[in-house]
Amino acid sequence: MQKGFLPNSYTFPPLMKSCKKMIGSSQKATGQKCHGQAIKNYVVDVLPVQNSLIHMYASFGLIDSAWRVFDGMSTRDLVTWHSIVDGYVKLGELVVAHRIFDKMPIRNVVSWNIMITGYLNAGNPGCGLKLFREMVKTGLKEDEKTVALMLSACGQSARLKEGRSVHGSLMKNFLKSNLIVDTALIDMYSKCKRVESAKRVFDSMVKKNLVCWNTMILGHCLHGCPEDGINLFEEMVRRGDSKGGMLCGHNKSKIRRDEEHVILPDEVTFIGVLCACARSGSLSKGRAYFNQMVNVYCIKPTFAHYWCMANLYAGAGLLQEAEKILMSMSMPDGDEEEEEEEKEDRWLSDDSMLWGSLLGLCRFRGDVDLGEKIAMRLIELEPHNSSWYMLLLNIYAAAGRWEEALKVKELTKERGVSRKPSCSLFDLNKIVHDFKLGENSNQPGMIQVYAMVDELARRLSLPKRGTGTSTRSYCLTERPDTSSERYQK
Question: What are phi and psi of 92, to 5 degrees?
Fold first, then answer.
């Protein structure tokens, strides 16, 4: 502009995309300035600019601003509808998202994938499968992402029969091996406790990436034989060692660029390995792998690694060491000029949103005091994360401390904390919890624990344990109305 050139409609979409990638509190202000400049230069009514605005505001969590842009548009295309639906889906507003989805004048496979993904991320695979069946009735053909989503839904809900049906359909329609779908098959069979079938798919793959290796390692470590998972990990490490893979820093990055077929373990790999050590009660191995992760591969431990180590110590009867390792977790180092709030947000967003449910193990172990201390500290670190309040509430419920549980709920209302679902590629926030719950479900006293959790659900009008529903996930036939008039347009 200083050289006399004025921005046009082609200028703003990439600008708004750049605003999304900015880090820190300035991104929203910068995005709003770009919006103002679009108005000033008379291009705000151009369709690609409007679509970029919706997508940008939705990515900031400013869904009301995104809706105002959408509501004021005279012309809309598929990108417009996808952007607004995806915005509500990512906020967990599935009722509103589905209303808008139902009003779409035309839908393609991407439209259905967005809604199915929303239900899976909200922990409602049954509704995702039901939506897929509706899509099939319309005559639309699924793509590889749809297939991966269906396999994920079957894995989440342990629907082995349906998962096998999807696999059979793949063998008829897909002649070539597909990395994404094959990895989803491994994940599905592992979660359905058919690790041998998952291993056959893994062995048949011509090309494997880190995600694929991690999925198979996790399958062994969490759902099959932990020793097999550790052996597979060792095989992957040996392959990396043969190319000089056990290097840190810039040398490690150089290997990744120069030797694409070299696969080095990451933080997810070691989560599986440490869980395997916890299952087998191998404290010495767990310590060795933790040190290898830090000192050989230069991987900074996350909350998940500390939690796995704490369970390993607790399983060996070393409860003080377990408490010490969790309570001594430090915030990440960073630039001294970086704002403390931004450093804290970065740490919490990377770990806590993915691993909050792991702390729910405290209620099954009976370590109420330990769980209470950890939950209190996490609430102090992140007072607006609903996961920590729900954790503390569940811990009190398991102990029958109903007054404290009610106080926690009142505290969430006072602070305006709302529940927002978290997600990850392989639902890593659930895997350790599911493993421990499955192993301890037959132990003495568990019936009483379940009864207390259900009693709390009744008193607080929450879904009961095992119903498969949540406050953010609704089946297609049971979508409550929203009161706001704007959603009726």
Answer: 85, 10
Closest listed residue to residue 315, CA positions, set 367, 369, 371, 388:
367
Contact 218, 250 (CB under 8 A): no
Conformational region of residue 461, where left means phi above 0, alpha means psi within -120 to 50, and beta covers everything else: left
What Cα–Cα distance (Å) separates residue 433 from each residue in 290, 353, 355, 439? 20, 15, 10, 10
pLDDT digits (tens, 9 = 90+) for 127-170: 999 999 999 999 998 888 999 999 999 998 889 999 998 888 87
Paired tokens of 299? 């991987």
Residue 182, helix vs strand vs coil = helix
pLDDT per position as a tens digit, 303-351: 778 878 887 887 787 877 876 776 666 544 444 334 444 444 433 443 4
Tokens of 460: 């607080």
Pairwise CA distance, residues 303 & 384, whole Å: 18
In whole angstroms, what is the distance from residue 88 CA to residue 393 CA? Answer: 27
* pLDDT bucket at 353, cuts 50 / 70 / 90: very low
Pick from 192, 189, 186, 222: nearest CA to 204: 186
- Percentages helix, strand, coil for the chain (3-state, rounded to 5) are 70, 0, 30
Q: Is the dihedral of CA 234, 240, 243, 246 positive or negative?
A: negative
How far apart (Å, rounded) are the C-alpha atoms in residues 375 and 385? 11
Instruction: Name the residue among 411, 338, 323 with its Cα closest to residue 370.
Output: 323
Distance CA 230, CA 237 (A): 10
| Whether the Cβ atoms of residue 289 and residue 273 lie closer than 8 Å to each other | yes
Partnered with residue 473 across adjacent β-strands are: 470
Complete DSSP assignment for 448-471: HHHHHHHHHHHHTTPPPTTS--BT
Rounded to whole angstroms, what are the CA distances from 312 to 290, 297, 309, 359, 386?
A: 11, 21, 5, 14, 27
Residues 216 and 191 sit within 8 Å (Cβ to Cβ): no
Amino acid at 242: S
- Reduced to 3 states (helix: H, G, I; strand: E, B; else coil), residue 14 is helix
DSSP string, 124-152: -HHHHHHHHHHHHHTTPPP-HHHHHHHHH
Query: Which alpha helices (H) appear in 296-385, and where do they start and end?
Result: 303-315, 319-327, 340-355, 361-365, 368-381
- Give yes or no for a contact between 155 and 190, defined as CB atoms under 8 angstroms apart: yes
| Dist. CA 138–CA 175, nearest whole Å | 25
Distance separating alpha carbons of residues 307 and 358, to the nearest angstrom: 8
